[in-house]
């Protein structure tokens, strides 16, 4: 009788351990996906900063050219 009880408990424990292992694998997958999403957000943020710096450079150059055209020409 005790052996049957032990066998039943072992089987129950094995099932629970397998379910826990499966759940743990799902959690690990979720964390890895979350980390990947964070990396992608960081990539987009860096890309946006780069574009912003390029646009500022272009705006400064255009402003410089525009102001230069407004100055009267003294090279006659």
From TrEMBL:
It catalyses: L-lysyl-[protein] + acetyl-CoA = N(6)-acetyl-L-lysyl-[protein] + CoA + H(+). It comes from the Eukaryota. One of its GO terms (biological process) is endosomal transport. Pfam families: GCN5L1 (PF06320). GO terms for cellular component: BLOC-1 complex. Belongs to the BLOC1S1 family. This is Biogenesis of lysosome-related organelles complex 1 subunit 1.
């Amino acid at each position: 009788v005790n052996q049957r009880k032990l066998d039943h408990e072992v089987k129950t424990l094995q099932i629970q351990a397998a379910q826990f292992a499966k759940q743990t694998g799902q959690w690990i997958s979720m964390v890895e996906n979350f980390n990947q999403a964070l990396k992608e957000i960081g990539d987009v943020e860096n890309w946006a900063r780069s574009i912003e710096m390029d646009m500022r450079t272009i705006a400064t150059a255009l402003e410089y050219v525009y102001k230069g055209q407004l100055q009267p020409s003294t090279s006659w």
